Amino acid sequence: MELGTQITWLFTLAIPIACIAWTVTHEEVFREPREYCLNRCHKGKTIAERKFFYLFTCEYCFSHYVTALMLIITGYKLLLDDWRGYLIAGFALVFIANIYMSLFALIRVDLKKVGIEASLEEAQKEAGQKKQ
What is the spatial distance between Cα 22 and Cα 17, in angstroms, rounded to a whole number? Predict the structure, then answer.
């Protein structure tokens, strides 16, 4: 595969990895299983149990497993055509997916901030109109 095609695959394949990892570790649809895992990672009897359940609460950790699954499904390799290509692709995909998730988190915080500021301005306008 040409290097340009490999790079395109890298940035494209990282999108579903980031989406899956973020959804499982942050969104409301998986809240109950995540809370269960969070409880088990804090109160587990063994270190193996605590670490296993922690994987489902951390987007960085979980992205490694999603990446491994995507590599199995797609057979994507980066730079080399043997097992080393899988290894390089795996870490590169995790890196890019986590950049995507970080950007998404920053955008969400900024949107939330804008929404709160707009709500405060509206409340202040309503309070000012009631005084008059």
Answer: 8
